[in-house]
Predict the structure.
Amino acid sequence: MGVMNGIRLRRRPLITGTAVAAATALGIGALSACSSDSSAAQGNTDKFDVVASFYPLQYLAEEIGGDHVNVTTLTEPGQEPHDLELSTKQTAGLGEADAVLYLKSLQPAVDEAVAQSGVKDKIDAATLTTLEDHGDVSHDHAHEGEEHAEEEHSEEEESGLDPHVWLDPVKYAEIAQGVAKAFEKADPDNAADYKKNAEDLAGRLDALNTAYEDGLKNTETKVFFTNHASFTYLAERYGLTAEAINGLDPESEPSPARIKELQEEAKADGVTTVFYETLVSDKTAKTLAKDAGLKTDVLDPLEGITDKSKGENYIEVMESNLKALQTALGAK
């Protein structure tokens, strides 16, 4: 754990307060109230305490909240968020927060803990934009524990909604706008600053969307392969097709029949590259690439920032993803 917190302090210099809070909690990722070094959740400070479930929401909370918030995260850097299990301290700490920011259906353990917690403001990012059903995509992250979640969640889970909305800058911007409104309502004394910070962030996300539109408008192919199905929203936004090697399990080996099918598709559609992720093994991608004579590269689903990330924040990593896609698709 010490190493991970070391990474956070080193990689995220602009949010030292948050990093220190996480470090002093010894990597628990729970509220800073669990640490004697911070009184942020004790009610005797002007900080607005937010627990974010994983990195993309942590980033929004920090950017919108600025100096007024104390943000802690339930998912440590380098930890695969889908399989997150919460410690007793994390679960207990949730109830002491001013707000919790999460994405329902992405992390069943978080959904259950939030539903049972007494936290005043529960901000579900899934309600701030429109999630879509991408067929088998949603089953990537099916978990045995999901049936234990609140009954009210079952409708969304059964409908197979794809949670990877943060990889579409437009949908991510919609979530950011909703988070800002929630912060303004929950902490009205600082509403003007939240509004201004949100407008600044909206401008940066709009510029990112424009860069993607312009950068991927003219390409030799529109198809790319990924290790598993995280990039459907991004592909749909920019007129591309993301073909996942393994829908169900990013760690498993594709069958010989699936390899053959993808080889044929690669030839037919001019596919050059198989992308793998930073937090998941590259074994599957490299197996396919070797058999099909394709290149491999990283396309980061931005579920966490580590020392392997090509950038120190959401915008920088998304810009790196754009360059990787332009190369793989033969952008003109």
In short: The chain has a mean pLDDT of 81. The first helix runs from residue 2 to 11.
